[in-house]
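Human:
Care to share another protein and its fold?

Assistant:
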Amino acid sequence: MAVTPPLIVLLGATGFVGSAVLRELAAEPVRIRAVSRRPALVPAGAGDRVEVHTADLTAPGAVAEALDGADVVVHTLLHSAGATTWRVEDGDTGAERLNVGVAQDVVEALRARRTEGAPPVRVLFVGAASQVGPLDKEVLDGTESDRPKGAYDRQKLRAERLLLDADAEGVLRAASLRLPTVFGYGPSSTARDKGVVSAMVRRALSGEPLTMWHDGTVRRDLLYVEDAARALVAALDHLDELAGRHWLLGTGSGRPLGEVFRTVADLAAGRTGEPAVPVVSVEPPAHAEAGDFRSVTVDSSAFRAVTGWQPRTSLDEALRRTVAFQADGGEGALS
């Protein structure tokens, strides 16, 4: 008798991280429901294993409909504050509805369909390492107490807690994977990267100076988007072991942003044939947050021990691919 593959419902399938997860999942022996506001692009070779489901998940009943029949839910939704940023202002009810409200709807939808004796639906939530808030330590390992400052981090933490509380209650099985700064493009990318690294690539290719709000010594743990997607798929294979708590994801190496931006400038110059643009320090804007000036490196050894995941792509190679993608016009085709 043929065994029906599990149904994975991917929320946010056209987003920057979600679209990369969709491409990675398409190579697995699973069924996928790709849920997003606009139709997701079905990866080559996926055939009829991918169901494209378009919906505004903030609408009443939309989440319950999207989750119908789900065995696993991957929550990659992220409120977009504009074309080039993910930051959220205090009082932004639209952001709160998506970042927190949808997680609440997931809990209620799965509570309503919970059947005695049936295995609970498993949920993987994509959080952010910045949820912990600004700390006086550089290396994070997941044992820190959360004291988020910005609206985005507070909202992500609330959503995470809703799901983990529901796990403790037995409504579902949930784990949260907190991501560091994720960036980059690969040959098959289908969603725009709104982060600072790709923004600097755009500037360098246009011949504009690369600006920093500090002296360039602030360090960031930068994770290539395709490695992040592989980590999420690896987490799905170990959800029962990961459930009930959050886990940190990162490369384990913090690189000074000044060094990163100078590499970007050199790579862009190699494509344009022009001199490398300067990397300069400027006064920070009013919307800058304390975390913008603190170094962050992520120790993800706990997650690696459970899943066996490790990043495959070096930072230099990931930067090279990102510059090549944008220089060849790939970003211009993204919506």
Q: What stands out?
A: The mean pLDDT is 93. DSSP finds ten helices and 15 strands in the chain. The longest strand covers residues 122-128.
